[in-house]
Every structure is written in C-alpha cells, then in structure tokens.
Design brief:
The radius of gyration is 34 Å and the shape is elongated. The chain is an all-alpha fold and about 525 residues long. The chain is built from 25 helices and two strands.
C-alpha cells in the first residue's frame, strides 16, 4: 500500500512544470501585494490594522474574551478641546518651578560624577531670567545694584560670586544674597540662611519702593523689580523648608505668597504647592488646587494633568485588575481614571516611561519645554514617589497608558483633547538636556501592525520565488520537490506507524471509505 501512494506522490511532483511554480508564486505574490496595499490604506485612514480589528472585534468575543477598550467621552470634553486647539506659541521654554539649587545640588552632582547636569543653553536662559527679574534701569543709582547688574551678565561663576561679595561690602543687597544662596552655598541649610538675610534686605527695599512707585515710570520699574525679588526669595525659602522636611511650614509659606501676590502666576507657585500637598498626602487640598488651576483658560502642564490622573487613579487602583476588567468591563470610576491617564499621556507622552522606570532619570534642567522630555524629567523627578505611595497607581498606568496612541493616529497633525503635538519639541529638548549621557525621548511613533509587516514579507518572499523560478526553473523544481518531501516526511512517518499498529483488513476498509 505504501508503494502505490509514494508512486502517486512522485508522479504528481514530476508532472508539475516550471510554469506551474511561476504561476503559483506569482499568484501568491499578487494576492499578498493586494492584501498589503489594502492594509496600508486602511491603516493610513483609520490608524489601525483591518485584520487586527476584525480579529479583536469578531473573533475574540467568540473565543470568550471581552474588549476592554474604553471609548473616549468626547461630549464632556468638547469645550476643553475647542479651547485648547486654538493657535498657541509652540516650543515656548518655561522656568522650571521646582528647579534645584546650583551650589547645593547641581554642583554636588558634578563633584561626585564629573558630569555637567546643565547645558550652556539652559544656563544662558537662566542668566536672561535673572537680568529680567532682578535688574532695572535705575540700578545705576545704587552702587550695589550696579555691581549686581554686571554680575548677572558674567559667564564665569567665580566672577559672579566675587561680584556679589563686593556688593555686600557696600550695603545689604538682596540680589547679592540670592546669587550666593543659589551658587556658593553647598548645603540647603546654608542656602536658607542666606535667603533669610536676603528676605530682610528685600522687604526693606520693597516697602521703600512701594511708597514711591507712583512718582514716575522709573520708580514704578524699580518697584516691579523689588516685587520680583521678594517673591523669588519667599518662594525659594519655601522650597528650602520643603527640602529640609518642614513640609507643613512650606505649604503655609506658599499659600501666603499666593494670597499676597495673586497676579504673579509666571512663577507657577501652585505647582510647588501641589507637590508639597502630595507629600503630606492631603489629597482633598490637592483636589481644591486642581479645581482652581486645571481650567480651560489656563495653560496646562504635566504636573496639572498627571496629578489629576493620580487622584482619579487613587480611587480605583488598589482593586484594579486587568484580567477582571477584561471579563466584566470597566466601571464608571475606572473609566474616568483611564480617561484621565489618556488625557495626561496625550499632553506629555514621555512621562510614563520615567514613572514606570523604563528609562533612567537625570537631574531636571532649570528650564523645561511643556509636552517635552525636559518637562517629563522634571515632573517624574519630584512626583515618582507620590505615584509609588498610591497602591496600584503605577500598575493602572502600566496597563492603560499606551492606549492613548490608538486614539491619536496622527499626533503631529491632529490632537484629541489638546492641540497637535509640537514638531519642534525634540530639537528644543536637545538644547536643554545633556545629550552626552542622556538619550532624549521623542514622541512614541506608532508602530506598524504585525499583519502589515507579515503581508509585506510574504509579498516580497513570493515575488522573489517567482523571479528565481523563472530564471532557474530546473534548480527551483529540485528545491520544490525536496521541500515538499521534507514537508510530507512527518505525515509519511505517522502513516507508517498507523499501518504497523492497525490490522491490514481495517486499514483496507478505511482507505476504501
């Protein structure tokens, strides 16, 4: 019985001509190409694979699975989307509200590692900020201020420090104390001592200029400068208290400062307040601050968006299970948490990798680019501990953050809840971050679905086979026979075993059937 079957297989293979192989491979290549073109067109138009979508939507329910994807509630966010899609200034660099101290923190890092955590571009922006906030046209009237005006323009740190000491020899100068606290002090306690001295000098100048501010434009500019100096000193003193563990004192100082100077929003003191309240685990007050600053008309930040997501995740994360959610679907609270995470990830897609420790952190720069890698580093550097403190929050983030990119197939052309992701972000981040030892994160590009890659490979393979068969028909015929023989070898082995086990009469009856 074995010989007739082998003879039939051999006869079938011998009757196949090279034209058959060319036609077979050509047809396969054509079909694969058509599938590839259709898949690519569908992916470009709808942002997903047609085969993958059909498999998930129709085959998975038949196999007992439940699609746990959460449709976005677009009706509740139309107002925010319409408002935030307005024309905005792209790639504007902002002062980091939580920037570290140069002498007590950045320089200590340099001493230990030998690496420079700040770029020249970042430090140059800081120098421009100092000249804007701490100087005015009337500085030449006071010798100490005139010296400090030159000091802020110095590139050499030692020259700046020497100029500050020179100014202090003439009189108590608030900006001189600021420079020494920022750059010369090697500990936070020493910086706090210098800032307290700066506070005394700054309050004296502020009261004096406040009385004279209406006497002319020169006095008005001087009062504006003294106001900036006083706000800066009080904010840095609050940050010193936070770093030294006196968090409640820091919260009180920040609240008082925001009440005293409500219009100076450029310092973003509310972000310092949010971080301190999270450290105290005072989530009710955190929600109250968010209710005031997470507004349509106000600019967003990673701190605002991710803190809002953390609070909503906190309500469900301790009991969240992806397996249970896939079986029963998401509850209303879980859906709200997932939508908040998607909103945060759309605003800044670089943060999750730092929070999930998929990418190593570095010291945050003194300036950040909103929605960029620099902002993600600055946020994760201070807020990672708060996410870890909420049980299950990072697990919920890990399970849901990548779903954001399914809702935004073309983030550089069209956004969902925010305006499209700025194209120039990567270039600006490379100027702000030390690329020598840090790989700048770029917008997560949407990977091609598996089926598009598979059909592309299949199309290329069959086209190559068709070409080889046309050029070398005899050789490809030998390869085809060898391949088919190898392919059928296990089947022949199984048939032989079955023939040896079953009685010949039974096998004869089965073959007749």
């Amino acid at each position: 019985m074995k010989k007739p079957r082998d003879a039939a297989v051999s006869m079938f293979l011998n009757t196949l001509t090279p034209k058959f192989y060319v036609a077979l491979t050509g047809t396969s290549s054509l079909i694969s190409g058509l599938i590839l073109i259709f898949e690519w067109w569908y992916f470009r138009k709808y942002g997903t694979s047609f085969i993958e979508q059909v498999s998930v939507s129709h085959l998975r329910p038949l196999l007992g699975g439940v699609d746990s994807s959460t449709p976005s509630n677009s009706n509740s966010t139309n107002g925010e989307a319409d408002s935030s899609r307005q024309s905005v200034s792209e790639c504007k660099v902002w002062r980091n509200p939580l920037n570290l101290f140069r002498g007590a923190e950045y320089n200590r890092y340099t001493w230990v590692t030998g690496r420079e955590p700040l770029t020249y571009y970042d430090m140059n922006l800081s120098a421009q900020d100092h000249q804007t906030f701490f100087t005015c046209d009337s500085d030449h009237l006071r010798p100490a201020d005139a010296i400090m005006q030159k000091a802020w323009r110095e590139r050499n740190p030692q020259a700046r420090i020497s100029a500050a000491h020179e100014a202090l020899e003439l009189e108590d100068c608030a900006t001189a104390y600021i420079l020494l606290a920022e750059e010369e002090a090697t500990t936070i306690m020493e910086a706090e001592r210098l800032f307290k001295q700066a506070l005394k000098a700054g309050e004296s100048c502020y009261r004096r200029s406040q009385q004279l501010q209406h006497h002319g434009t020169q006095y008005e500019a001087q009062h504006r400068r003294d106001t900036n100096v006083l706000v800066y000193i009080k904010r840095r003193l609050a940050m010193c208290s936070r770093k030294l563990g006196r968090t409640r004192e820091a919260v009180k100082m920040m609240r008082d400062l925001m009440k005293e100077f409500p219009l100076l929003s450029m310092f973003n003191i509310h972000e310092n307040l949010l971080e301190s309240l999270l450290e105290l685990q005072n989530y009710a007050d955190v929600q109250a601050v968010l209710a005031k600053y997470d507004d349509i008309s106000l600019p967003k930040s990673a701190t605002i968006c991710y803190t809002a997501a953390l609070l909503k995740a906190r309500a469900v994360s301790d009991k969240f299970s992806p397996e249970a959610a896939s079986r029963r679907g998401l509850s209303t609270a879980e859906m709200n948490a997932v939508e908040a995470i998607h909103r945060a990830v759309e605003f800044n897609p670089h943060v999750p990798k730092y929070l999930l420790e998929m990418k190593s952190l570095i010291l945050p720069p003194e300036h950040i680019l909103k929605r960029g890698d620099s902002e993600a580093i600055a946020y994760a550097f201070f807020h990672l501990q708060h996410w870890k403190r909420v049980e299950g929050a990072l697990n919920l983030l890990h399970c849901t953050w990548e779903g954001t990119f399914r809702m935004i197939p073309y983030p550089l052309e069209k956004g969902h809840l925010f305006y499209p992701y700025p194209i120039c972000t990567e270039t600006a981040d490379r100027e702000l971050l030390p690329t020598v030892f840090h790989e700048v994160s770029v917008y997560p590009k949407k990977e091609l679905p598996f089926f598009i890659l598979f059909t592309a490979g299949l199309c290329s393979f069959t086209a190559m086979l068709a070409l080889l068969t046309h050029q070398f028909p005899e050789l490809m015929g030998v390869f085809a026979k060898a391949f088919l023989s190898t392919l059928f070898a296990p089947l022949n082995f199984i048939m032989e075993k079955v023939e040896s086990i079953l009685p010949s009469s039974l096998w004869h009856q089965l073959t007749r059937i």
